[in-house]
């Protein structure tokens, strides 16, 4: 049963974007003073807060210590008010622990952890409003927070989703499109080298379409990286004015 | 760039509560306006509104919702559908209306565009607090209309039409150049001459008013809402499927054939029975419904008794088969309503009905459709007319669905009306080709014949001098779409076989008007007395037709075969230029092969005797070589298990010949098979080529293996004559059918083959991306891949295949494709469309044949006329009668042995039959009647004598009625139809004589109704209807059905090549 029409004959999506257009991305770095790094990011109506602590010595079990690099600890959570219906979201449910794991993998690939052996980096992200593409918004926000904390990375990690409707790849899905029943592919990319930090797809897709879909997702990631780069530069400018350099 | 805004929606959550949802909404400055008048250099791609309209018209949401049909008139130009209106229509009337709107927007013949007003920065207006949805929509559309007017710098006035009088008052005079008026006013002031639109408008209006004044008494259970249905179907609680009403018991029985592999209900492998009107719950034949199964103790069996058309009597005590899953309709997933032809009741009934209101119950032509309630004031004028009606809705409070009239076809019972009825009922729409379309085509006349273009000569392979090309077709064929060539290559070790097909795609560019028209027709329609071409005559009979002695463009497949083993060494595909040397017909080719001194017209024109002999020898050699190759190919396929359903090909040949008027007893000649085999081979190789090049978007044709349980009747019937039929594979089936020959009665084998054909499903076109590779198999032909390539003049599928093949060739040469190929989804949609049209064409052909059969018997007195008495063979037994087949007329029908007064047929000593009180007993293979005079058995394959008469019917198609008059084979002065030889030609003469008699009657008929000729001119495209030819066709039909009995059902063509 066909639900709503995700892509009209004229090439418009539900919210008026064309297939390759991203949602509006807005971000601010350094929103909290207490943490080592923090960032707030809006990707369309998905709003995320990311906070980074560290690198600091490993807390808790000493067995976690890695002697050649830093441990990255990620925690993902959603605010109770983040969705249309208010819902209590206990910590450690399956979905968020999976998401935490994904974030961890992504940042282990991007952060130069070997510079900080025997230490730990904590990344906390919280979804304030969920409207599709939660994972990618989290990665993008966390990247900014890590940069804000001054932790060296190989490159920006930019993430974006892409879906496939009527043989056309759609970039950056919103909630309505994600729940429309199609495929959704999430990519986290290190844009300069084109390395993929994480690739995730749950639904089925014909193999032949994979390339076009990947292509679309990677183009979208590069678009996001430009925005993030601008945000970082602007932030630095503001900071340098503040510090009077 | 884009501006982000938000819109707030209030939706219902899955648990029924209200949820506030915030959605983003992006606005942009540049939204294409799709008008040729655009001053702002909009990026208009695709369809645009022309400059030469006097005004633009913007329909309001309500107008789109209720009066889309009026807007569908092609005369109305410059329609701008605003996005708001489209979405509102989709929201309130569902997917069906929306799809209709979409196809309207896509149709380039129709002057309308879609404007995404809600995404345009300046034309969008957010909904205000407290504003009703309707008000907001109207405001939005008005706002957008104003923007549109300003965008075009006020060059054309914009007319907004609405049914909302408040809007007219509010916006009516607020801006210059923009007029807000009601639909009626619009039609009256702008299109006063378009009467059809006015009538349709008032008809819909009346239906709408009627709807408001509906009573509230509930007749049916409410349907479940769509979400519940969807969830239920997913969980397996409901079964989704298409409702199929039993034609003979339309009031009581319907079946739901469920689609896809609902594995959750694996114990359900048959259809679901839906008994009675309450359980059917307003579903109409063809709707996609959801059914819920009743508890097993309420299950019932299907009725096995024979039934006359209108079965009004009670079910219950009638014999039933063993109980089968029974259910009730709980919801309708999708309506599949089409246009229906109905007949108005005679005056006395009208009066009795119209006392309470203006509503009238009309009876559809199709038995399976319930009566429709219509409100009209024209009932008086329309009585006994056939009228096209559309259904509007069916509320649970109403016993019958509501509809409105669309168009009057004519008085019922007239030939032209009846033929039009058949067309409408099969959704066949064949208007004459438009001027604009014909203007796009090259011209060719006797004075100025069309010539080959020089640049084409250089780009094509020129075979005019190197190859001996000839065509073999039925006598008098006009549209020759296939020619053949065969030659021994120098060196003598290799043969070259060539199949050259008319290059239609050269003339029919993708996206041109001719292409679109051909696509919507999808095939040439052959009715019993006329045909409707897919392509205009200049193409089908001239430029594309590979006539003898003229240069023509062709698409060729040429194989290099090993001269000894006939194995393929090399295949070449490409565009060529040919000149056919001989335009042979089948009989001529066969007699040449047989070594007879038949005259070849092309040779007789030569003066030089020696030259003539040489040419003759050359042609003969080619024909022999061809026969040898074809035999080899056939043998190869036979090994694979190709089904040899005899007569199949004869019927198909008849189909493919344009000239049905040629009255030749078509004996199955070997040369038929030779040509067919070459065509199959070409189709097969082209299928391989395009499938390899485009694994996901090639158009192929497959024939799925039949379901084993469908063979039960065949196996049971064969067992009565102690033949064993093995249906395990197509090869086993073919072999066992070959063995099942009764020496004394050749009809038996034909009947068995007929049943085998009936058991099979239809061959279908599909896109390779939509099926797995195992499903490509063609069961009937025993080929792993098959497509249609050889008749582009009369099948649209072949045109697509030609394009695919060209794309494949170009891709191999490294050329960039000129156009993006259709995606898998588009192709699958197209394949579906073509399949539908093919089915419609076959139904129409069958129905028109039946119509003519009835007309043939109508004026004969069954009691005295000897022609109404015929020999019949029983081929199936039912609870109160049997199904018989009449070889002489190729008719099939029911014969009752028990009538309504519960009397049974009693057989006297000399075989004659009478109705008497008695008992009836039914076994698997026979039915026996016991009366005071004794017991008589009617067994399968018995010959009996029946009398044929016509059952009059006012609203429905005429029916033939068969009545047993003797239990012995018919002894008639006319020789019975022997399958071969003299008998047949005698029958031909007989039928011709009858036809001539019928001609006089037909003339009288025509004389009575002079009005008819106008309609004929309007609807008919073939050349002047020659009365004699029509009657010859009646005669032909009897013949045709003689073949039809050998392979009667629709899928015949599937197994044959229909070259």
TrEMBL record, chain A:
GO biological process: nuclear mRNA surveillance; poly(A)-dependent snoRNA 3'-end processing; rRNA catabolic process; rRNA processing; U4 snRNA 3'-end processing
Subcellular location as annotated: Cytoplasm; Nucleus, Nucleolus; Nucleus, Nucleoplasm
An example Gene Ontology molecular-function term: RNA binding
GO CC list: cytoplasmic exosome (RNase complex); nuclear exosome (RNase complex); nucleolus; nucleoplasm
Keywords from the UniProt entry: Acetylation, Cytoplasm, Exosome, Nucleus, RNA-binding, rRNA processing
Gene3D superfamilies the UniProt entry points to: GHMP Kinase, N-terminal domain
Residue stretches making up the Exoribonuclease phosphorolytic domain: 21-152, 155-219
Any one Pfam family match given in the protein's UniProt record, by short name: RNase_PH
Record carries keyword Hydrolase: no
Family listed: Belongs to the RNase PH family.
Subunit relationships: Component of the RNA exosome core complex (Exo-9), composed of EXOSC1, EXOSC2, EXOSC3, EXOSC4, EXOSC5, EXOSC6, EXOSC7, EXOSC8 and EXOSC9; within the complex interacts with EXOSC2, EXOSC7 and EXOSC9. The catalytically inactive RNA exosome core complex (Exo-9) associates with the catalytic subunit EXOSC10/RRP6. Exo-9 may associate with DIS3 to form the nucleolar exosome complex, or DIS3L to form the cytoplasmic exosome complex.
Entry protein name: Exosome complex component RRP41
TrEMBL record, chain B:
Biological process terms in GO annotation: gene expression; mRNA catabolic process; rRNA catabolic process
Catalysed reactions, semicolon-separated: Exonucleolytic cleavage in the 3'- to 5'-direction to yield nucleoside 5'-phosphates
Matching CDD domains: PIN_Rrp44-like
Subcellular location: Cytoplasm
Biased composition range(s): Basic and acidic residues: 1002-1021
GO cellular component: cytoplasmic exosome (RNase complex)
InterPro entries cross-referenced by the UniProt entry: Dis3_CSD2, NA-bd_OB-fold, RNase_II/R, RNase_II/R_CS, RNR_Ribonuclease, Rrp44_CSD1, RRP44_S1
Chief location category: cytoplasm
Region (Disordered): 998-1022
GO molecular function, one term: exoribonuclease II activity
Database matches in PROSITE patterns: RIBONUCLEASE_II
Domain RNB: 460-811
Entry keyword set: Cytoplasm, Exonuclease, Exosome, Hydrolase, Magnesium, Nuclease, RNA-binding
One Pfam match: RNB
EC top class named in words: hydrolase
Cofactor(s) recorded in Swiss-Prot or TrEMBL: Mg(2+)
Enzyme Commission number(s): 3.1.13.1
Family membership: Belongs to the RNR ribonuclease family.
Protein name: DIS3-like exonuclease 1
Species, as recorded: Clupea harengus
